[in-house]
Design goal:
With about 350 residues, the protein is an all-alpha fold. It has helices at about 15-45, 55-85, 90-125, 125-130, 135-150, 150-160, 180-220, 220-255, 265-280, 285-290, 295-345; strands at about 165, 170-175. The chain folds into 2 domains: about 10-290, Rhodopsin 7-helix transmembrane proteins (Rhopdopsin 7-helix transmembrane proteins, Up-down Bundle); about 300-345.
Length: about 350
């Protein structure tokens, strides 16, 4: 598959090299931060228990990291490669994979973030019930969310599984919405899996912010610190999510009605801006957690400190061995000189 086959690239204004490479550089930063950051979150939370938060919140953090990692690998990276090559290079099969991961990963991210903010609000309102939530129950809840996120790709596959193309405005593969059924299915689909979760995240975030001071006063000192940082963490993640997802949700809901030729360029530009902003959602979580979760920040600093100590110890050992070598070679030189003097005599 290339720009001339199964592609609508000629329909949209193409980017010049400077614009295309600038966008590629942005996605390279996003991909690198997501790859390293999400792997760090998963390793530190599962193997080292670096997040001293409620089990439900830690579980949501882990599943959101998995979701962001999948989006980075199957959506961001192919888009980055297409921008660098100025065409689709992965073939038809992976084009379908990218299109389906797009309509699966974005709803999954929305539903997980929505559940995280609603879950934190529930923990505040019903703290006694929250104590009985086990890790297994938390993972089962997230598993149900993943299953629910399969509804959009199943809908796309059911309507027309071959309705996929390389989309020239976002440099990625996506569904063309050729069927007339999408005129009413698309707003419903994006409303339920994009608009509704976004509204819930906004509503819960407002309520969480209003509870910050109250939770700080009611909690005792030891538990209050954990509850406070948990609140700040959820609000920070929700805020980035709102900024990143709101433009894309608006575009997706309104897109079926933007058929006018006059709005063509506006539609192309807005979709690129909305998609670029959405990619922001998959990258900054590790920085948010480092800033707002004291236990995670302490673990990272301790790990860095240990690494620096190992490097310093290695350098000292190398210097010590080097000093011994100098001394030995010096002695050998001295004895050689003595032998030379003896022969001269």
């Amino acid at each position: 598959m290339n720009l001339t086959a199964h592609s609508n690239s000629t329909t949209y204004a193409t980017l010049n090299d400077a614009e295309r490479l600038t966008w590629a550089a942005w996605l390279a930063v996003i991909f690198t931060c997501s790859l390293l950051g999400d792997i760090t979150i998963l390793v530190t939370s599962t193997k080292y228990s670096a997040f001293k938060l409620h089990t439900l919140m830690v579980t949501f953090i882990q599943h959101i990291s998995v979701c962001d990692l999948l989006i980075s690998i199957f959506v961001v990276f192919p888009t980055l490669t297409s921008l660098l090559a100025d065409r689709w290079v992965f073939g038809r099969a992976l084009c379908h994979v990218t299109a389906n991961f797009t309509v699966f990963g974005i709803p999954a991210s929305s539903l997980l973030t929505c559940s995280m903010t609603a879950g934190k609000l529930w923990l505040l309102r019903y703290p006694l019930r929250a104590k009985s939530v086990s890790e297994k129950q938390a993972h089962l809840l997230c598993g149900g969310i993943w299953v629910l996120a399969l509804v959009p790709p199943a809908l796309y596959l059911g309507v027309d599984k071959d309705d996929v193309e390389f989309c020239g405005n976002i440099y990625s593969c996506y569904y063309k919405h050729s069927s007339h059924s999408w005129e009413f299915l698309e707003p419903i689909n994006h409303g339920l899996f994009g608009g509704l979760p976004l509204l819930i995240v906004i509503s819960c975030s407002i309520l969480l912010i209003s509870n910050l001071r109250e939770a700080r006063k009611v909690s005792d000192r030891s538990r209050g610190a954990v509850r406070w940082q948990g609140l700040v963490t959820v609000v920070a993640v929700a805020s980035v999510f709102i900024i990143a997802v709101f433009p894309l949700t608006v575009y997706w809901i309104c897109e079926p009605y933007l058929k006018s030729a006059v709005l063509h360029d506006v539609k192309a530009s807005f979709s690129r801006i909305a998609t670029t902003l959405f990619y922001l959602n998959v990258a900054p979580n590790v920085f948010l957690y480092f800033s707002t979760v004291k236990s995670f920040r302490g673990f990272i600093r301790q790990a860095v400190s240990r690494f620096n100590d190992i490097e310093l110890s290695t350098e000292e050992q190398t210097a010590t061995h080097g000093g011994l070598s100098v001394q030995i070679s010096g002695r050998r030189t001295s004895s050689d000189n003595m032998g030379a003097d003896y022969h001269l005599r």
